[in-house]
Amino acid sequence: MLRTSTAVGIGAGATAAVLVAALVQAGQDDPIGAALSLSVPAKYRSLVEKAGTTCPAVTPNLLAALLTQESGFNPKARSPANAQGIAQFIPATWASHGIDGNGDGKKDVHDPEDAIPSAARYLCDIAEEVKDVPGDKQKNMLAAYNAGSHAVRKYGGVPPYKETRNYVRSITAMANKPAGGGSATGDQATIALNAARGMLGKPYSWGGGNAAGPSTGTCCSPGGHSGASVLGFDCSGLTLYAYAKAGITLPRTAAQQYTASEPVKPGHVKPGDLVFYGSTTASIHHVAIYVGGGWVINAPRPGAKVRYDPMDMMSDLIAVARPTSHPQKGI
Within 10 Å of residue 42's Cβ, how many Cβ atoms? Predict the structure, then answer.
């Protein structure tokens, strides 16, 4: 099946600036909120969106699901075990992991501006503590939030406590509920973006990068540059790695990644969408990840490092598309 040029292709006589202008306008409307699909009280939404990008292990939906489970977004909640606030910290854990999220000079477990970013940071910390435990990393992290990292390590995964298992099952179901269709969900886009951000500063390596992370590349680029001795990423190696972290397998080259994605029209772009460059969709030579506000993150060229660039860094921006798990289509 041929892919038509309605993908967001730029026709003859048009310029990349036309597409960029439309996408920037869309991106400025809500560059992060698009990744949050769970219902969150309006007064806490921006806190959850921001805290939900603290580390690759945490997403806005996961954090929203946890807060829903813990307190139903009630900052005055208190459990029989004396867990307190919107994120239900027990006093000892709050003393060691609570942060002054709003910079007012005090750590208040009942203040969502402190407790929500504290919950995200604590999730990141315990994800690191149980990263080597076998099994599903997200479930182990949630189990550690509920029962403690020591219990997860002791039992080699989610401990056999009824409360903890129900807790993990409930939050996982809420956080990972598909958004519909085969395209990347908002959470998957956030995971991919966080993974790519984690590689900022890694060197460009022609042919480098895979689902596991940076790797040595091959020889040689059109300019004669070899990646055989450079541990890093080329453009499509970075996007492949980022989306592998989100559970989506992309093919190796930029052109192939376009065929494995669904077209996005101007006005509908979201952070995490892939931005493609080439004179036609059949000659795509570069791919980047949209981060919002007219910016992308990418591995640009030999001699450079993974970095942020303006979306119009190249004059042949041709299309924007959203990764899917669908079979590849012909260009």
Answer: 6
